[in-house]
Amino acid sequence: MDTKNKEGTISKKEFQEIINNLDIGYFKGELNGKLLIHNSAINKIIGIDPSLDLTGSYSSQFSSDPEVLERYHNDLKKNRHVKDFIMKIRNPKGQFLYIQFNSHLIEDGDQLLVEGTVIDVTEKYLLERNLMDTEKKFNLIANNTNDLIAILNQDFEYIFINENAYYSVLGYKKEEVLGKRPREFNHPDDLKRVSNAIKQGLLEGIVQEEFRIKHKDGHYIWVETKGKYLMEDNKLKGVIMISRDITNRKNSEKKIQESERKYRSLFESSTDGIYSADMEGNFIEFNKAFLKMLGYSKEQLLNLNLRQITPSKWYEIEDNMLFTHLAVGESKIYEKEYVQKNGTILPVSVRFWILQDEQDDPYRIWAIVRDITEHKQIEQELIEINKLKSEFLRRASHELKTPLVSIKGFSELILSSYLEDLNPDIISKLGEINSGVERLQNIINDLLQTSRLESADLKPRLIREDLSFLINFCVEELHPLSAKREHSINTEIEDSIITKFEKEEIHDVISNLLLNAIKYTPQGGWIDVRSEIKDDLVIISIEDNGIGFTEEEKGKIFKQFGKVERYGQGLDLGIDGTGLGLYISKRIVESHGGKIWMESEGKNKGSTFYFSLPLLDD
Ligand code: ADP
Asked: Would 447 disulfide with which of 32, 116, 296, 397, CB 3.0-4.6 Å?
């Protein structure tokens, strides 16, 4: 058979031979996609047996996307060729491949055919696409983060910055940064440190440092920078730097340092002892004053426990206190004792706090300790002096009482035995003597009662009584006086208030409050006496519309000799008194486990005196 065609060129077989030796795919086909000729490289590319003849099959059998195939044909018809057209196909094994076509139209007689080459670009295509994806991701991150991202070349000049972040954090535009070097933006004080870090970084390939960068408006921003050196053949190619604005953190660090410094100087210079301990009482920290107070060295005290420097009688009290403190959570101040190194007992006042962790568990005790030796001594001395005073008052009053009895006795005797022999003037003078003596006797009785009430072991003799009966009795008793002053006394008292008290003493309290209300309420005023039962207490109140109290006057009336001078105030009132009445009343009420207090809206606005007593059953 003739091996050459009629033009004298190569035969079909030779042609097939030639194209089979090509390593790129070759095909010829009709415009509808029907394959007329192909080489074995095509078989190889799509992964099928090289001897298999695909002639007669259609391109649509391979294309995975009819739209792409249509575009390919359209391009071809329009331009008569396509260049580097990438088509995704699915091979018989079901794998996807990316094939690149370079095809053109040829005329074969009066028929138009397609001829072209194909190569498998799957790997390259995927790689490029991946790179594109990576770049997209990088841009997305770089444009949306507030971290400053920069790339420097081998000369340490900026060649890339993420402009958004640079603008929002530092106020610079791209063109103000690119081509410059980082050191041009550094704080002068940081330069040395930064350049050392860079040197170190060159050795290690990575650097991390905190420093300041100048903002466009002149102030400095603290950043934490991580730099990665890009090396190639042991030569520096560039640096990638990522910096984070840590100005806020730095500022708060500075504040913490400052307050730590302040706290330290307070801690060390305080004349009060300060310590912290764990919940077992082991010391963690203490100042010099605390060591001095106890006489131990630092090392000695670190090996001791709070218990070991506390007399055992305090253990239970302190345990309870800790317990209630934990429940209530407030700082607490109390007095206790420590044992000094030489065994001496040291009285102190302690204010302590308990710190809790995130789970609200207590983990630390903090305390301020004050040496109160001197204070205790003074307190003791005052107690002694007060005792002496009371003793003096008691004795003096007793001594005064006796001659008064004879003065009163004799003046009464003169009045009764010699009334007819005396002229009215002398009778009236003797009357004055009598009432003067009476007043003096009252004062002496007050003084005696005060000194009696001051003895610490004074306990009232509690007997079941009806308090409402006693109140009504006192009101009746003082009726002549209140009638004389044209007062209206109103009582709103429970029918019977049964509790335990010492009748004579509570009688004195009620009479004193009533008498005061009468004394210090001008002619024609009113006085209301009420009772109220509240939980396990009875509260008695005596209200008047009298001369009331200023704030200053309120402060002293329950104290010894707390008389408020009211001379020259144009009052029609008898203003003699010792200023002991309310003090005595307070002592009595408190010795019964009650309280006494007063309210007044101000001068001439009346006042209300209250006292409470516990309602005792047995
Ligand atoms: P005194 O013996 O002087 O009355 P008290 O201790 O009973 O002593 O009272 C102290 C002071 O309180 C009195 O001097 C008086 O000025 C004032 N005072 C007491 N009760 C009243 C009252 N109801 N209204 C106004 N002032 C009062």
From this structure: 397
Tell me the C-alpha distance between 505 and 530, whole Å. 19
For 611, what's the count of Cα atoms within 13 Å in the CB-facing half-sphere? 27
pLDDT in tens, 267-305: 999 999 999 999 899 999 999 999 999 999 999 999 999
Q: Is residue 368 helix, strand or coil?
A: strand
In SS3 terms, 514-532 reads as: HHHHHHCCCCCCEEEEEEE
Task: Output the CA–CA distances (angstroms, integers) from residue 36 to 7, 43, 115, 160, 385, in the order listed.
Answer: 21, 14, 10, 54, 132
What's the one-letter identity of residue 540? I
Work out the burial of residue 199: count CB atoms within 10 Å of its CB; fewer than 13 is exposed, 13-18 middle, 19 or more buried: exposed
Q: How far apart are CA 249 and CA 245, in angstroms?
A: 9
Domains of the chain: 12-125 (3.30.450.20), 145-250 (3.30.450.20), 270-371 (3.30.450.20), 377-453 (1.10.287), 463-614 (3.30.565.10)
Collapsing DSSP to helix, strand or coil, 556 comes out as coil
What's the one-letter identity of residue 228? K
Specify the pLDDT at position 2. Answer: 42
Mutational pocket test of ligand 1: of 440, 516, 564, 588, the residue with most ligand atoms within 8 Å of the beta carbon: 516
Distance between CA atoms of 550 and 143, rounded to whole angstroms?
A: 73
Cα dist from 57 to 35, 53, 60, 206, whole Å? 6, 9, 9, 59
Residue type, 174: K
Site to probe by mutation for ligand 1, drawn from 563, 566, 573, 585 as the one with most ligand atoms within 8 Å of Cβ, is 563
342 Cβ partners below 8 Å, 6+ apart?
Answer: 295
Atom 17 in ligand 1: residue holding the nearest Cα: 564
Which residues is 161 bridged to in the sheet? Answer: 150
Q: Report CA(565)–ligand 1 centroid distance (Å).
A: 9
Rounded CA-CA distance 550/510 in Å is 23
In one-letter notation, the amino acid at residue 35 is L
Amino acid in the structure at residue 94: G
pLDDT in tens, 127-141: 888 888 888 888 888
Buried b (16+ CB within 10 A) or exposed e, 592-604: bebebebebeeee
- 213 CB-contact burial (10 Å; exposed 0-12 / middle 13-18 / buried 19+): buried
pLDDT in tens, 67-93: 888 999 999 999 999 999 999 888 878
